[in-house]
Amino acid sequence: MSNELLAIAHPQAAPAPSAPTGERFRRWLDERLGISALSYPVPAHANSLWYTLGGVTFVGFVILILTGIYLAQFYHPHPAEARDSVLYIQDAAPLGDVMRGIHVWLASLVTITASLHLLRVFATASYKRPRELNWLVGVALLAVTLGFVFTGSVLRWDQEAWEALQHNTEAAALLGNLGTWFTPEFAENVPILTRLYLTHISLLPVLLIVLFGLHFGLIKKHGISALPAQADAGEAPGGILPKEKLGASYAEHLRKMAGYGLILLGVAGVLTVLLPPAIGEAANPSMEITKPAWMFFWLYAFEGPFGVRGILYAGAIFFALLALVPFVDRSPWRSPARRRIALAVAAAVVLAMIGLSLYVWLSPTEEHLEEARRLLFRL
Ligand code: HEM
Q1: Is 282 helix (H, G, I), strand (E, B) or coil?
Q2: Three-class SS state of 42
Q3: Contact, 102 vs 89, CB < 8 A?
């Protein structure tokens, strides 16, 4: 069929002969892939930085997966080889130091962006009807993020990694039968380091992808929440903004997300150059001299008075309280002025976590791990 006839039969499908090549290519691609379907309407405020933090976290995870695949080419997940293979990545593998630096720094940065995203969702009460279940998916995503950081820090197989593993083993012993999977005895023919590596590169990524699917599917179903003031003025019946109140396009949101994501990558790159992540000494099982990764500092504060049990209980209580938020805060209001108690409680929790973290950061390391040492010496 000639272009003229095509234009009469299917006006949208026919390429305009006078259009520039770039535009003709875009239309060609769109006809085949349906890219323009991404230009569906979203609220104008979805393009602000606060409402893009989830997307920025997602971009961070994509880069983490890509750099992680690269690192896995050189990493050896056996206790006899692991630390040397990390040294090899850092000193000899092509671009190994850059990839490792970006991977390690991004792990910290996505923890920060995911936490800020959580605070935005909390501050705007976006967990309220109909988004309660998506809040729960978010809580699971936070747990998976911390799981990545924990298993990743063990992989370095230096002193800090070894001490982290001791905590893992002691916590597993406290959990009794529930903790069996986390003990070295679960599979006596495979070192626990190798099993934690498999957790890091297969179990957690699968969980992450399933949770991302649920999280994004529910966001698509409900749309981004209205601003609190709009919701409280009754402009979003059932929590969903009507089409005529949507002032931006999702394609624009994606562009913002990618732009902020690139800035995040740039920050990780600068940090990699200025502060390349360290690799500690080979593990000395008779000492306890390191602290955990910074995101676990507040939990570590509970170890002093209560032992590893304190870490376990404080972590479980924190996640249980987080999961209960939408079911405890059931008022219909979303504006901060009408949620003073909820915001005051959240501020107190955040300040306590920051305070405990600073306390751990500034205090010397303590020895806690007699039980774990006894268990591990049997290996
Ligand atoms: C850890 C990785 C996470 C990623 C990649 C992620 C991604 C996203 C994205 C892209 C959005 C769209 C709006 C935005 O960007 O702000 C969103 C919305 C949402 N997220 Fe997350 N999220 C994560 C963690 C969390 C956590 C920890 C929570 C809460 C515990 C949470 C709860 C929610 C809720 C309730 C919404 C809907 C908010 C609204 O409609 O305003 N997410 N998330």
Answers
A1: strand
A2: strand
A3: no
Residue from 42, 208, 216, 219 whose mutation best tests the ligand 1 pocket (most atoms within 8 A of CB): 219
With the most atoms of ligand 1 within 8 angstroms of its CB, the residue from 215, 224, 328, 334 to mutate is 215
The residue count of the chain comes to: 379
- CB atoms closer than 10 angstroms to residue 107: 23
Ligand 1 neighbour 334 (Cβ under 6 A): no
Q: Which CATH superfamily is domain 3-26+43-377 in?
A: Cytochrome Bc1 Complex; Chain C (1.20.810.10)
Q: Per residue of the chain (379 residues), give pLDDT as tens.
A: 444 444 445 555 555 567 899 999 999 999 999 999 999 999 999 999 999 999 999 999 999 999 999 999 999 999 999 999 999 999 999 999 999 999 999 999 999 999 999 999 999 999 999 999 999 999 999 999 999 999 999 999 999 999 999 888 889 989 988 899 888 889 999 999 999 999 999 999 999 999 999 999 999 999 999 999 999 999 999 999 999 999 999 999 999 999 999 999 999 999 999 999 999 999 887 777 788 999 999 999 998 888 899 999 999 999 999 999 999 999 999 999 999 999 999 999 999 999 999 999 998 776 555 544 444 444 3
Annotated domain spans of the chain:
3-26+43-377
Closest Cα to atom 28 of ligand 1: 138
